[in-house]
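Risk register update: the risk of archive-format incompatibility is retired. Evidence:
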Amino acid sequence: MPFSEGTPRTGERRLSVNPFYGPANPLGDMAEAPPTHRLPDQPIAPATAHQLVRDELMLDGNARLNLATFVTTWMEPEAGILMAECRDKNMIDKDEYPRTAELERRCVAMLADLWNAPDPATAVGCSTTGSSEACMLAGMALKRRWAQRNADRYPGARPNLVMGVNVQVCWEKFCNFWEVEARLVPMEGERFHLDPQAAAELCDENTIGVVGILGSTFDGSYEPIADLCAALDGLQERTGLDVPVHVDGASGAMVAPFLDEDLVWDFRLPRVASINTSGHKYGLVYPGVGWALWRDAEALPEELVFRVNYLGGDMPTFALNFSRPGAQVVAQYYTFLRLGRQGYRAVQQAARDVATELAGRVEALGDFRLLTRGDELPVFAFTTAPDVTAYDVFDVSRRLRESGWLVPAYTFPPNREDLSVLRVVCRNGFSADLAELLAQDLERLLPDLRRQSHPLTKDKGAATSFHH
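Archived output:
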């Protein structure tokens, strides 16, 4: 989360309290309103604290109408009950909560089977707080394996990681934190993600791996993982360099196995060493839970796995975080058990149908050009048509917000910084009915936008909270 500077106490604003929020005697215990940026001197009634917090959170907006986020915003009430019952269980205390640990182990085995590990029984993996931690762990394993193979040169030689410029910001953080050079394949023309051959050409003896994205956050498109592996196979034949691939399947790894079964992207490709996904995205679980899996024990160096004598038991752990609630892992197992393959297929197909149909509605308006159509991830990106000069995508985003819709507008990275787009993420819970309402609101605001003399958004960097 961002760093915040404390608010000076001089002239400090205080929260106002409605007397009716208090106990039976509305004046009792309400002589002093609590401050906002320091601990109150005295406790207040639980109902009062609850109402104060709830009133302020009303201004957050409706998460179901947030079409910027990939994160799950709806689950069944039964899942919520299970999560409430498990939120006090510390996931790291595997000896104290052995059944929660067993559910985590089962989820890893299910994902290994889903992603076609050579032997799901020997695939290794773990839950994480999200894909960001999972990517860090996968990157650490890549770097350590490279360092072992190059013990005569490292430290000394600087490792590098090859990926498309469209990667999620967590990969930039990994390279920064673990002192790895980021080698980025730029966008070119109408190609908005990594080019396999260009990626192979950036590899050398210091490359720890190449990251392929199964579902780019910029436009929802799949990167060609099989073509990437083929390009690296060719590189090995020419040079002897054996470069592994990590698949960042934050979203697509929970979509492609159900809707694109013939697409080869996973452990069926021998060069794929590890895969991550976000259980809290198209895994259909509230935040935050992610998963990192390696094809076998050899892909995860043993020295990275800590074995801790903790609370009376020997506990192997591979994580950046330690204490965290078991609720999300339990919810993931519930969802796997509840839906099964057919259920996941139905849910993801419904999301893709909503995305493709809504993309068609947007295109039919005539003011916009589609970059993607929602036929890979249930996500599509679009920009204004070449002849539209009265307004831009930032004006559209701003006007949609007036109706409660959060649709991000943003500029693409090099070499397509000239291109600004809107992106719609269709998740479980964003129904065809809601999509129809969005299409109607978009159509309704177009006459006003067309009457503008020019785009009105001056500070495009602040036009949307979405920056990736």
